[in-house]
Amino acid sequence: MAETKPILYSYCTSSCAFRVRIALALKGIDYEYRSVSLLTQEQFGEFMKINPMAQVPALVVNGKTLCQSVSILEFLEEKYPEIPLLPSDPFDRAVVRELVELVNSGIQPLTNNSPVDYHSSDPAAQSAWKEHWTTKGFTALETRLAQTSGKYCFGDQITLVDLVVVPQTVNAFKWNIDMSQYPIISRMYTTLMELEEFKTSSPLEQPDCPSELRK
């Protein structure tokens, strides 16, 4: 049976969807973009039949659906290995996955809208919450990157950790986090965002980006 074009359910500002968009771009995979507006809470409608967690991204490949961004990244790495995003050495692969989880488990889920809204409806308290968890995670990440980074987060090869660090840094800028505390993370962000695959995958370049965000 011939393979069909993958379908990515995404929203422009979702950091997790941003990760997957970068991977698809780096691996040169053509796909169909389907927007699920988090702004209008579209994820709580028909989309829940695709992902009961009401979260993006979701990737449909030949009629089968994958949710959770890191699972999608791992799938893409196995199915399309020609442009690898994991090192060949088993220990190095484990280190990359460790760094991925530092962001994926230690920062992103704690600063996502659902826990932030559950924590407080007060904007000041919400900002303090996001700053606390971002600062805690980025402080640890900066320490690890001092040990692992070269041109990119892990040596001189683009790996999965680069794909999670850039979107989380975009969020940090959005939340007015003082990034001068994190010179290595800041350097990684600047270097990576010069690459076409990262630029074209960014929130402002997506077809569903609201006009007010482009200003």
From TrEMBL:
<dbReference type="GO" id="GO:0006749">
    <property type="term" value="P:glutathione metabolic process"/>
</dbReference>
<dbReference type="GO" id="GO:0016034">
    <property type="term" value="F:maleylacetoacetate isomerase activity"/>
</dbReference>
<dbReference type="InterPro" id="IPR010987">
    <property type="entry name" value="Glutathione-S-Trfase_C-like"/>
</dbReference>
<dbReference type="GO" id="GO:0006572">
    <property type="term" value="P:L-tyrosine catabolic process"/>
</dbReference>
<comment type="pathway">
    <text>Amino-acid degradation; L-phenylalanine degradation; acetoacetate and fumarate from L-phenylalanine: step 5/6.</text>
</comment>
<dbReference type="InterPro" id="IPR040079">
    <property type="entry name" value="Glutathione_S-Trfase"/>
</dbReference>
<dbReference type="InterPro" id="IPR004046">
    <property type="entry name" value="GST_C"/>
</dbReference>
<keyword id="KW-0585">Phenylalanine catabolism</keyword>
<dbReference type="GO" id="GO:0004364">
    <property type="term" value="F:glutathione transferase activity"/>
</dbReference>
<dbReference type="InterPro" id="IPR034333">
    <property type="entry name" value="GST_Zeta_N"/>
</dbReference>
<dbReference type="GO" id="GO:0006559">
    <property type="term" value="P:L-phenylalanine catabolic process"/>
</dbReference>
<dbReference type="InterPro" id="IPR005955">
    <property type="entry name" value="GST_Zeta"/>
</dbReference>
<dbReference type="InterPro" id="IPR004045">
    <property type="entry name" value="Glutathione_S-Trfase_N"/>
</dbReference>
<comment type="similarity">
    <text>Belongs to the GST superfamily. Zeta family.</text>
</comment>
<keyword id="KW-0828">Tyrosine catabolism</keyword>
<feature type="domain" description="GST N-terminal">
    <location>
        <begin position="4"/>
        <end position="84"/>
    </location>
</feature>
<feature type="domain" description="GST C-terminal">
    <location>
        <begin position="89"/>
        <end position="211"/>
    </location>
</feature>
<dbReference type="Pfam" id="PF02798">
    <property type="entry name" value="GST_N"/>
</dbReference>
<dbReference type="InterPro" id="IPR034330">
    <property type="entry name" value="GST_Zeta_C"/>
</dbReference>
<dbReference type="GO" id="GO:0005737">
    <property type="term" value="C:cytoplasm"/>
</dbReference>
<dbReference type="Pfam" id="PF14497">
    <property type="entry name" value="GST_C_3"/>
</dbReference>
<protein>
    <recommendedName>
        <fullName>maleylacetoacetate isomerase</fullName>
        <ecNumber>5.2.1.2</ecNumber>
    </recommendedName>
</protein>
